Amino acid sequence: MLASGGHLMGIVDDLQRARIAFERRDWAAAYDRLTAADGDPGTVGLGADDLMTLAMATFLLGDIDACIRALQRGYRLRIDNGEVLGAVRFAFWLARVHNGRGEGAVGSGWAARAERLLADYPADVVERGYLLIHDFFRCVDRGDFAAAISTGDEIVSVARRHGDPDLLAQGLVCKGRLMMYAGHVPEGLATLDEAMVGVAAGELSPVFAGTVYCAMIEACQEVLDFARASAWTTALTRWCDTQPDLVPFTGQCAVHRGQILRLHAAYPEALAEFEDACQRYAALGYDMAAGLAMSERGDVLRILGEYVAAESAYDQAASYGYEAQPGRALLMMARGRVSGAVAAVRRLLAETGDPVHRSRLLAAAVEVLIAGDEPAEAEQAAGQLSTIAEEFGCAGLRASAAYCSALVALAAEDADRALPQARAAVQLWGELRAPYEVARAKVLVGRAVRLLGDDDSATAELTAACRTFAELGAVGARQEAEKLIGRSTSGLTGRELDVLRLVAVGNSNAEIAGLLVLSDKTVARHLTNIFAKLDVPSRTAAAAYARDHDLL
Predict the structure, then answer these.
(1) Count of helix runs (H) and strand runs (E) in the chain
(2) What kind of architecture, by CATH, is found in domain 394-489?
(3) pLDDT by residue (tens digit) across 95-140?
(4) Phi, psi of 452, rounded to the nearest 5 degrees
(5) Fold adopted by 494-549
(6) Is the whole model's pTM more than 0.90, yes or no?
């Protein structure tokens, strides 16, 4: 039975307030009003437009199951009313939401249903442009990048013909990312900048605005364009902050904030952001994204010398289906497992062809290959990184390439070639306000001038680097710098340091064996070596030495 009189007016008021709340981005209020109107026993339920609003509100609140239920109801209502194009819109969103949480088969089914509904419609309707988004990602998944770029162009063309800002922004994002992966990074970033125009002008609906923000920042991070990434991360943070109930996009925002904090060596704050991001993603069921956040956390822990915790973070990333590389290879190198690290970076480089993703591996590969006494391979990797950095023009890549070129030259004891590259790395990382990377580059300056016979200048550079590492808590880097100065505090291997740290916090041999996946006998042997190297008689004395010499 239908509502009447004052009761009907109350429902109308609820719907009007829900629409106003949605427009002002108060997703919780919109949801409350819509569900109140929908659940009233005197009504026939929400109409299709309000079901779409409810679906978007629940999506933005992070309730994906409720979003799917609203979309399914809206789809059925459109079909029952013979409103095919409206039904296609609901089917598009059902495909997108299912794909977003890893349910690809269900998502593909809804996309196929939408395409079937459009079979008898004229070719030039805007809904076809939305379905092309799914075609684009299918092309990417099968590695057909030429078809993907062509599909991106078609999405942009449809959007411009129909004056649809959401579709235009999505098409520009698709096109820009693929241009970058094809090696046309400046052009790809310019295309992404164009997509951001719609966001900045307030033309996009919330889900598309969040999508474009995150795609832009992710692209900047991939090519170490830190200035651009920092600016857009600040903008994304402001956008998220205007929506207190927002759940999607906040995880990615936390990841990007963590990445910028890591660049500036604000490590405790970065760790907190990555942990927050992982929890947000895991709650939404976005496992790969949660894995990325945990991998980033592992990278910070590795820099801090907390190798056991770093390995645990990388293992957690793997449990989410994310391969934490090249961080895990660098951890293996730091812990003395150099041959395994070399095998890992060789595999990663063999598997990675596009220049964007390859650029993220090459710097780590150079370090590992130098440690593995593979100078020819290291020089080849450094040369590739220099070429990519020159083509892309991003400051972070140029800094990384200069550092790697200096490292390779030092391995060949070519100080004349190493010194200008190391100094360029110091300058470039300094411009990016990256103190840890500046200190690492100063170590190379010190090594180069020592080869040239200037021991006093070498000691000054190495001491400055050592001081920075100590201030930042970068234990492993500090110890390496101290060895170069000639005042190493331990001489312990990475595994011995792991054992010592666990001893210092009160773990028994059996507990240490379980945590490090070692036998009791191996732990005992490590302890014997630790006592001998530190010249201490007991576990208590070893723990005291570790605390006094900042080895924890």
Answers:
(1) 29, 0
(2) Alpha Horseshoe (1.25)
(3) 999 998 889 899 999 999 999 999 888 778 999 999 999 999 999 8
(4) -85, 0
(5) Arc Repressor Mutant, subunit A (1.10.10)
(6) no
